[in-house]
Amino acid sequence: MQFDPQHLAALSAILSRGSFEVAAADLSVTPSAISQRIKALEDRLGTSLINRGTPCTGTPAGIRLAKHAEDVGILEAQVSRELSLDAAPGPARLRIAVNADSLATWFVNAMAAVPDVLFDLVIDDQDHSADWLKRGEVSAAITASTKPVTGCDMHPIGALRYIATASPSFLDQWFAEGVTAKALAVAPCLTFNAKDGLQRAWLQENFDTRISPPTHFLPSTQAFVDAARHGMGWGMNPVQLVRGPIRNGRLAPLIPKTPLDVPLAWQVSRIMAPALEPATKAVKQAATKGLIPD
């Protein structure tokens, strides 16, 4: 089945902007024209593509079709580059799954090195970002998995180093007699969300017994550091974000010289790999500066 490019453009714009009206403005058409295009596409496919609301979201079929539209845009941009043709009207859109800590420490440098692309980032834990590739909802992902997703090329790019840190006052309050399994079982820790296994991984690596401390849930990389600085709990923070606070005495490692290194990989859909070569090159270059060799 062939799709009308205008219909695909309308669907992609609505799902990326969350509104028929804003999508119409982006495409320089009326909201009525946008609605007619979506109705024609849904009638042709015999299924709903958009959950109408504030914001508008895609049904599973709509998300998959919008991803197809974005892939077509990237492939057309590649052909234009290779044949020195006039660029398409407007940059291509690239959807990537990335973990919050990579985004906060090094991944923006990679994005900035890729011209003529609008990024649409999905934030998920590095242990789960590969699921977005498996579902076909993104073209590439930063993952912690060393096993390639079926149909994808995998590029190991290094490891993100974490340090278990807390404020000196927190250490004095909860670990006056040392960082022991008994003390860790009652001292509050920080957890990004239910998918975050970094604190458990560090505990398992450094203590034989199973420990399940009380925890705050803070789904923000910067808030994680701030909460540790304010003595709310201990947590695993990227070394790039805590070098300064450790140097000025606002934070301290729970146990010196016990980093947790999380290997990361850049996985990209094999079909899209040639068109995404500029992005792959930028990710590798940024990773050499932002990550440690695995």
From TrEMBL:
A single GO molecular function term of this UniProt record: DNA binding
Domain HTH lysR-type: 3-59
Transmembrane segments: none
Keywords, sorted A to Z: DNA-binding, Transcription, Transcription regulation
Transmembrane keyword on record: no
One Pfam short name: LysR_substrate
Family according to the record: Belongs to the LysR transcriptional regulatory family.
PANTHER family linked: HTH-TYPE TRANSCRIPTIONAL REGULATOR ARGP, TRANSCRIPTIONAL REGULATOR
UniProt name for this protein: Putative HTH-type transcriptional regulator
Species this chain originates from: Falsiruegeria mediterranea M17
Phylogenetic placement of the source organism: Bacteria, Pseudomonadati, Pseudomonadota, Alphaproteobacteria, Rhodobacterales
